[in-house]
Structure formats: C-alpha cells, structure tokens
Design brief:
This protein is of the alpha/beta class. The chain is built from nine helices and eleven strands. The chain has a single domain, classed as Aldolase class I (TIM Barrel, Alpha-Beta Barrel). The model has no long low-confidence stretch (mean pLDDT 92).
C-alpha cells in the first residue's frame, strides 16, 4: 500500500482524492547552533510524536524537514546531517504513508540519499531550477544533478519542487510564475509543483495557484504554506493537495508541537 500511495506522486493523472501532508519540523540536529543534546533520542521522540499525531488525524503522510538547523547552509549540508536525518526517518511511523524529506535550505542530493536509504516516497526541493536570492545568499537550482542521482538510486522517488519559493526573491527582472512553473516541470522534470506565500505560514495567492495550474496541467500541484481551516477548502478546488505545518501547531506557533485537535479540525475542513 505504501508503494501505491507513493506512486500517486509519480502518476501524471490528477488524483481523485486530495493528497494532504503535514510537516514534521525536526529539532536542531547535532552540530547545529541550536542543538542542546548531541544525541538523537530527544529529536526522534519529538519527531515520532508529531508524525503519529498527523497520521492519527487522517493525513496521508508528512514532510520531514531539518527546520531547527538555523542558520541554514545554502546548498550542501554536512555528512552528519544526512546521517542523522536518515536515522531519524528510519525511526518514524509510516503506516503505509507518503513520506517526503526536505533538506534545508537546498540540498536535494542529500534529500535523495536520505529518501533512498530510509525507503521514503520522495523529496521536496526549494530551488530546483533557475536561481533565487535568499537570506542564505544566491541559491542556484541543481536539477541536472538531482535527476541524474535519482536515476542512479532508482526512479521510484518523487521530486516535488517549489515555484518562486518563500523566503526568496527572483534575480534580475521578475518573471511570471507561469513561466517559472513551466520551466520547473518541463525543463527541470519535477513530478509535482509547490506554490507558497512569501514566508513560512503566509497564505498562497489564489491567482498564483490558478496561473500555475493553467500553465502546467499535467503535474500534481500542492499548496505549500498558509493553508488553514478558513481557506483550505477553496484552495483545494485548484490544487491537488497541500503541505501544512504552522496552522497545525499548538497556538499556531511553528516552533511548537503538533496540536491533535487542530490537526483533526484541519482535516475535517479539507475533506469536508
């Protein structure tokens, strides 16, 4: 069943049911400035708790992110991060779920290695094509390397890529999100596209979502930020799924743990 769910992300036909993914924000990993304990047990326990709550609430799966590793590397992360995230991923519940890994700020090669080693469903990559100006500096897409490494590891891993990602600005003359979406899908060969607001927890512009849907009708389209109980039903009229984090947390604070009641209420709003 897990393989069947993962195959949804690789199938170019739009899914009949929406794909709803929560986010498991990992605590600071060993070696990061915010890490208080060099061991992994506390990190694993916190991640397992949040993953369990998401699955119990009815989510189809979740995205694992090294969210606590501020400040982020712009590209390649240390081998210790890759090793730690692989170990953590192997310890989390799947229950035949879709599990995606995102190595922040932008290391798709590490993400693919983790996904392959832990037998996950795929990866999220924030800058897959083009280049963006971010608080980590200029980040360039690595689609050529990413697709070639996936071929080596096995083509069963899905690549979900952000379009005009949050916490970033385009370099040079801004281009329409439709053009960026077509490049990400048809030149970068991403399996799915993600549209976000301007920052973590910021709402998606429905017009941006509609333009991406029109420009790329044959890829899965996900809402990547700012989806809450008040807007999710309307946004899912255009998108095929959503990735949600902040609005599921206690008091709506991104650094808190998942609130089971908020998670269940969000699923009820999304599923109707």
């Amino acid at each position: 069943m897990k393989a069947e769910k993962s195959d949804l992300l690789l199938n170019r036909e739009r899914p009949q049911e929406k794909i709803l993914l929560g986010v498991v924000h990992l605590l600071s990993l060993p070696g990061s400035p915010g890490c208080e304990d060099p061991g992994l047990e506390k990190i694993i326990d916190a991640a397992r708790r949040d993953a369990e709550r998401l699955l119990e609430a009815g989510f189809d799966g979740y995205v694992i992110e090294n969210f606590g590793d501020l400040p982020f590397f712009p590209g390649e992360v240390p081998p210790s991060t890759t090793a730690a995230m692989t170990r953590i991923a192997c310890e989390l519940p799947t229950r035949e779920a879709i599990v995606i890994v995102n190595v922040l700020r932008n290391d798709p090669l590490a993400a693919l290695s983790i996904a392959a080693g832990a037998e996950l469903s795929g990866i999220r990559v924030n800058v897959h094509t083009s280049a963006m100006l971010t608080d980590q500096g200029i980040i360039e897409g690595r689609a050529a390397e990413t697709l070639r490494l996936r071929r080596q590891l096995g083509d069963g891993l899905a690549i979900l890529a952000d379009v005009d990602v949050k916490h970033a600005e385009q370099l040079g003359t801004p281009r329409d999100i439709s053009e960026l979406a077509r490049e990400t899908a048809y030149r970068g060969l991403a399996d799915g596209l993600i549209v976000t607001g301007r920052a973590t927890g910021s709402a998606v512009d429905p017009n941006d979502l509609a333009r991406v849907r029109e420009a790329v009708p044959d890829r899965h389209l996900f809402i990547g930020s700012g989806a809450d109980e008040s807007n999710i039903a309307g946004l899912l009229g255009t998108a095929d799924g959503a990735i949600v984090g902040t609005s599921l947390k206690i008091d709506g604070r991104v650094d808190n743990e998942i609130d089971p009641d908020r998670a269940r209420a969000w699923i009820l709003a999304a599923r109707g």
